[in-house]
Amino acid sequence: MSKLNAHEGGPVTWSVDGDAGIIRIDAANGGALSPDVACLLAKGLRELDGESTIGSIIVAGVPGRFLTGNDIDASDGDVDAAAIVAQIETITKPVIAAITGPAIDVGLEIALACDLRIATPSATAGLPGLTLGVPPRHGATQRLPRLVGIAKAIDLIAAPKPLSAEAALAVGIFDRIEPDAVQVAVSLGGTVLKDRLSNRSVPAGDASGEKHSVDAAVKRAKGIGAIERSVSLIADTASMTFEEGLSREQANYKDLRYAPEAKALRYLKHAEAWARTEPGMQRVDPRKVERTAVVGAGTMGSGIAYSLLAAGLPVVVLEQSADAAIAGRNRITEILLAQQKSGRLSDTKSAEMVQHLTVTENWDAVRDADLVIEAAFEDIGVKAAIFDKLDKLVKQGAVLATNTSYLDVDEIAQMSGRPADMVGLHFFSPAHVMRLLEVVQGDKTAPDVLATALSLGCRIGKLPIVARVCDGFIGNRIFAIYRRHAEYLLEDGASPAEIDSALRAYGFAMGPFAVSDMSGLDIAFAMRKRRAAARDPNERYVGIPDILCKDGRLGRKTGAGWYDYVDGKPVASEMVERVISAERQRLNVTPQAFSPEQIQRRILAVMANEGAKVLEEGISARASDIDLVFVHGYGFPRLKGGPMFAADHIGLPRILAEVKEAARVGGVGSEPSALLVQLARQGSTFAAWQRESNHER
Ligand code: NAD
Hints:
With 697 residues, the chain is α/β, with parallel strands linked by helices. It folds into 3 domains: 12-256, 2-enoyl-CoA Hydratase, Chain A, domain 1; 292-469, Rossmann fold (3-Layer(aba) Sandwich), CATH 3.40.50; 476-692, N-(1-d-carboxylethyl)-l-norvaline Dehydrogenase, domain 2 (Orthogonal Bundle), CATH 1.10.1040.50. It contains 29 helices and 20 strands. Helix 5 (150-158) runs antiparallel to helix 9. The relative contact order is 0.06. The mean pLDDT is 94. Bound molecules: nicotinamide-adenine-dinucleotide (NAD). Residues 295-301, 318-320, 324, 328, 375-378, 382, 386, 403-405, 426-427, 429 line the site of nicotinamide-adenine-dinucleotide.
């Protein structure tokens, strides 16, 4: 290799091999485009272009890396790569991208400006920045459709993950896959023709295929504006010039890059990273888990067993009788079949999982388990008997877990006789689908047991969030206040449909009354009856759902609940309206009108207030954990970042004012949290509180 014009050292180096100039990008942070990298890349292109003996320029990464776009946290904003892209296109020599690793976001846009793309087998291509609400701005929406056609470009824009090298080759984004991409690029060198995608016209496509891609992409975008607008721009590409398309692309970027939606999505990404580092846990080794057991193969146990099996863990499922064991095995088999049918599970993997599964009423099979998860009936007596039995059978050192939703994990731990080995693992339904896992740390839970629960959670693909013991932990506790205030709004004048529709308009997948109809009104009714004796008489109690239950309106399963169901679709029920207005009359309530905004503000305020109580009581260490619980477990809109983030965004003084109004309406249990009052008074936020409490590690 000639040393002519060689530039050595730093994140971008260039040298000459024969008549090819090679630029090597060795960008830190996995390949992020820093201002330094951009500046040197431009300089390398300029110098090699000016060298008359050079016939072609190769833009390469180092093995395993190429360019992954901007650092999303860079405080000085994104690096503008427009000059580099323009420079590559104006160079008259062929410029070849030797893609030696992920070509992501701006990295892919730079590769698209080149005349040929040769990738190594480990390379990938994609625009995942879109899923964080950041639209491209260096021509991806214009060059991609010119390269692969409108439909495929839209599919790529909406793809949740970057394409593998093979997939990118099949689509036509990569031209070749070569283990030594740089050497092949050198040998092709000057034979490659200049091929500016900006000069090409958009290939004619099949209108129905394009429409199908648009519909699928919009559905998958789940409201993310960056994806929706990029998709619509690509769909229109054929009817405008490259420059017109580029300026629309740049307008999208300008509108959305720093919009609240992109901030929320970026925040949630960070929140997940913070959640992975539980304070104090870094130096604690988890216990070894090779064999697992699940007690109870009902709704939850079967899904939990599936999740463990899918992670390659052998599972023994214990039931109370031979018949129950058969029914339990059938439930697990049904999940396996459904997953196979949907293409999410291969036949081979399914057969392997069945090999690892034992469902039995013979409890001797639990002796070897390193971890046992109890998912039997929600009854303290049932759980006490189970843990008593487990204590006699399970080897010492095994981790014992309960999936209880509301029972006291400390009480169960005490009854187990092994409180240090005990932890709560609160899965969400359906347990094989939902990523959220509340890991409930009891008073006596040993640090290595907590570490085991967290590492197991990650191993089975869940998002473990630590909670301490209280009624309902993080999620169900805050959800309870949400539901209560929805009922107060109802009794005070709003209809179920008005409340549901206001919350759907905010971005919730469903409103609370539709959720209640789906899960069954009887579950909450049973709980209310259980807790009746302990309820504070000064807590406002709405009796309407009890009347509906007594009337047999238990929700969808009985064909009627808060709504009537006509052909499976909910419609407002006259009978429910009569019950509501009779209750209002009995209580002398003059119905008021609530606007959707009032409903949204009230619900958000009471959730954030309860979240603040959860923080001040130490039930959760991080406001961002609360946000993750609601986004992943309760259908809270991701684009709003979660209740705590949304409250910060609105401003805590305004939230506090709304909470005071809610407290007037709700009485005991709805009072403002001391932490909220303090932060509002200081003009602070939950995010600042979290940073100061040093929980972002
Ligand atoms: P379920 O009624 O569907 O299943 C319970 C299973 O446990 C049944 O198969 C039953 O035969 C078995 N069982 C009962 N007693 C047993 C015993 N002594 N030994 C062995 N097996 C026994 O209940 P579920 O909905 O799966 O709930 C299980 C637990 O998970 C409860 O504690 C519940 O609060 C909790 N939970 C439920 C949900 C949910 O949405 N269903 C969500 C989170 C947590």
